[in-house]
Amino acid sequence: LLLIVDELNHFFARAGHPVLTRYWTQDYLLSFLFGGGQVIEKIEALSVAERQPLVPGIKALLAGGLPASDPTVAEAKETLAADRMKEEIAEGAYEDLADGIADMLQRTDLVPVSHAKAIRGLEPEEKEEYVEAVNTLLHGEGRYEERFKGWIDTLTKIFDEAPNWRIATTIPGIYYPETHTVVRRSAFVRQAGSIAPTARYSRRAKVSAYKNFRRVALSTRERLAAAGHEPRDLLDVYDFIWTTLRTSALDHLGSDDD
After folding, report:
1. Rg of the chain on CA atoms, in Å
2. CB 101 within 8 A of CB 134
């Protein structure tokens, strides 16, 4: 589902047409994609020369479903593995670790490219502090809420401002996608309107608001599963929320630092 919708969005953007899913609700999107091939008929009816390569690909995705693993998660599991981080920290390889994390983040669309560049531009002692904070966040002892607060505090100190939600949540979200979520505030707040509309959702990352956003992601996962579309993890849920509830399907090409 997520790959199909994303492909549609990119296709219509390239072809200069309004994005197909811009004003659709999630329930309508689900029924439209899986309600008897209507989406294929709609695409085939378009008089757009560029459509020809898309239709077979959509049909293949409908037949084959989602891939079994996510390369972003696989890379995070390798780059940020507890044993690897412990070994490289013991060797004092903080700069290599920090630059490796920056490279990994830049290969995703989850954080602004400027953030990866900012990590590379840190002073050696700042890279050490950053790496130690990542290690504590992912592999430290104690309650996650306390470790997440320490992570936010470190990011605030190193980068001279409180982190936005994407920067604060991407690393734990791609390392522990089964239990933690990346947050894109603008879309997640819209999703919260049907799940927990009275909860508080701060503009910048905070522990209390993260709990609320995580509850939104978990509830959305349950709803998707109940509809017969089991997400692999909360990263799939993030993709679903962002794809269906962003202000514009072209927002990911611009800046949305919420």
Report:
1. 20
2. yes
